[in-house]
Give the backbone structure.
Amino acid sequence: MSPYKSGFISILGRSNVGKSTLFNRILGEKIAIIAERPQTTRNRILGIKNMEEGQLVFIDTPGIHEGRTELNRRMVRTALATAQDANVILFMIDASSPLLERDRRMIESVKKSEAVPFLAINKTDLVRKGALLPMIDQYQRLYPFHAIIPVSAVAGEGVEVLLDEILKVLPESPPYFPEEMITDQPERFLASEIIREKVILNSYQEIPYSSAVAIDEFKEHPDRNLIVIKATIHVEKDSQKGILIGKGGQKLKRIGEQARKEMEDFFTRRVYLELWVNVEKGWTQDPGMLSRLGYSPPSTHRS
Ligand SMILES: Nc1nc2c(ncn2[C@@H]2O[C@H](COP(=O)(O)OP(=O)(O)OP(=O)(O)O)[C@@H](O)[C@H]2O)c(=O)[nH]1
Ligand SMILES: [Mg+2]
């Protein structure tokens, strides 16, 4: 029998390439939220994949992008910092819109990491087969990846090959986490993210980028098979608050209903959800407010 292996795999790539979709697909459970729009993931999210031969600990990260707010900068720093402690960096690109120069800059910024570099070319379902070979060739010349693997996170194609190849380069090690654990994110965080996903899904223009969700109360009532959740959606402007609440509160109600349904599935309990909208002017630029909302800068790591 081959020895048991485990290690950390950081998924890095530009916004919207499908990192969270692949992460959820690997875990077989929706832990990270997903949206058609860029800059959806804002934190580092850990997910544990147990296989017979080892344990793969994946880190989903915010997309590398060029936004100018303090929130944008913290997101990018959070993502890049995960490379420091990873055994493998799984770089990811979107086959339907490869951007060689920007990807080169991203790879440059974590060059000091000793992790084994992989490249996943995602969304292969959107391109002709013939387009893949030249792309693989281009990226092979860009950087000496250990392996380049075409995948489709939505269709699940190439994912098994990817896991097998990653497992091969992980060090011999006992598992880092108990087998029944799938993530280390607290339930409060998962609940706030489900609400934020529904906000993104039901809003336009700058609102997704201006919204943050704080859980004010998360109370379990096991005797009644119920969780009571009270949350505040922070936005930056009065006008955004009006839009989010909608005529007669219709939009906020829809967001609440969608979030509650998904939480009930996820937590397998009944959920009572109460939502508030609050205007917190300029929170995306305010270091104190950002930290209170859970967007702390990564702590300084080993050099
Ligand atoms: N066609 C196709 N679409 C995909 C695939 N993977 C992801 N998507 C779509 O791409 C969009 C972005 O997916 P996410 O998983 O949120 O992307 P991300 O890289 O995590 O984005 P950020 O968190 O913003 O950095 C969503 O609309 C997904 O449904 C794929 O393999 N094929
Ligand atoms: Mg994401």
